[in-house]
Specification:
This is HD/PDEase domain-containing protein. InterPro entries: HD/PDEase_dom, HD_domain. It comes from Streptomyces chattanoogensis. The protein has 322 residues and is mostly helical. 47% of the residues lie in helices and 10% in strands. The strands form 3 sheets. It has a 3-stranded mixed sheet with strand order 3-4-7. It has a 3-stranded antiparallel sheet with strand order 5-8-6, covered by helices on one side. A two-stranded antiparallel ribbon has the order 1-2. Strand 3 and strand 4 form a beta hairpin. Helix 3 packs across helix 8 and helix 4 crosses helix 7. The protein is globular.
Length: 322
């Protein structure tokens, strides 16, 4: 990889430090190029960019806001290395947790020797990704962090719903300790993107394919010698190949890719005897930016109300093949 790259979304030019260049040559980082950020919804939408593209976007944001913070830059590169194939699609099955997997990978080959070569301890990177003190990458206080900022804006661009030039937006953003802060107009634009993302996650485009792939993964684990740990380190193409190689999953794997129009989704739990299966979304993301350094509830209550209304979206569904 070139020692300088320009992120195509934010248009930030980043000069890679030696440790960053070395990390980008390792298998856990290269693997992310073959994992779709949008998960199974890449089947039904144009959300086709990879986890590596998102990772480099987060690095670009850290390089913009905290250019001299080497540890935070390294943490940005490594924050997603534990992701499963198709990202969040079957998170939680068989206890699989990408956060835990990522922390384990930080402490083992080939990541640990690269960090040690450059005088960085894996423990320090783990701490930079932790919640105490809150990290600009991963704070879980309900406030917008850099990881989610890149996700919302990058997804908005892929879906054609980004009305603001990201580079111009970035000039109106600040990092207040561990949270993104915006002026009122930019905060409103971000809330629009956050709400659109939540509606995407609760729509047919996401619920249908995600629910099917979760079923297929369960069948794969039940009927083949494949272990959860082996499954977790696959790429997306390897997962589809595994589906196609298994008699229990082959037919439905083909259906979800080539006959997606036959899939039906109904919000809410069905009563009575119905075909299909139930599916529950694990969570709806709605982290809020600060508005000129203040919490949104105080500075822009009307925007906070828009995010609160996302709690009314259904997270329970019935899915079936017609």
């Amino acid at each position: 990889m070139s020692p300088v790259f320009t992120d195509p979304l934010w248009r930030i030019s980043v000069c890679l430090n030696p440790v960053e260049a070395d990390l980008l040559h390792t298998e856990p980082l290269r693997r992310l190029h073959f994992v779709a950020h949008g998960g199974a919804s890449t089947i039904s939408t144009l959300q086709s960019y990879s986890r590596l593209e998102h990772t480099l976007g987060v690095l670009a944001l850290v390089a913009h806001f905290r250019p001299e913070d080497e540890l935070l830059r390294v943490a940005a590169l490594l924050h997603d290395i534990g992701h499963l194939p198709l990202s969040h699609t079957f998170e939680g099955l068989s206890g699989l947790d990408h956060h835990a997997i990522g922390l384990q990978l930080l402490r083992t080959d080939p990541i640990r020797p690269v960090l040690e070569k450059h005088g960085i301890s894996a423990g320090a990177v783990v701490a930079a990704l932790g919640t105490q003190p809150p990290s600009p990458l991963t704070n879980r206080s309900g406030l917008l962090n850099l990881d989610h900022l890149d996700s919302y804006v990058r997804s908005g661009r892929a879906a054609g719903r980004l009305d603001t030039d990201p580079a111009a937006m970035l000039r109106r953003l600040d990092l207040e300790e561990a949270a993104v802060s915006a002026d009122r107009g930019t905060a409103a634009a971000l809330v629009d993107l956050i709400c659109a993302e939540a509606r995407l996650h609760t729509s047919w485009d996401n619920v249908g394919p995600v629910s099917v792939v979760r079923r297929l993964v369960g069948q794969l684990l039940d009927t083949t010698p494949l272990t959860p740990a082996q499954l977790a380190r696959m790429t997306d193409p390897q997962l589809w190949s595994a589906f196609d190689s298994c008699a229990a999953t082959r037919a439905e794997s083909s259906m979800i890719r080539y006959e997606l129009h036959r899939l039906k989704v109904m919000a809410g739990r069905a009563t009575g005897d119905r075909l299909g299966w139930e599916f529950s979304l694990r969570k709806i993301y709605r982290s809020a930016p600060l508005v000129e350094g203040e919490r949104m509830e105080t500075a822009a209550p009307e925007l906070a109300a828009e995010l609160d209304a996302l709690g009314l979206l259904s997270t329970e569904f019935r899915v079936w093949w017609s």
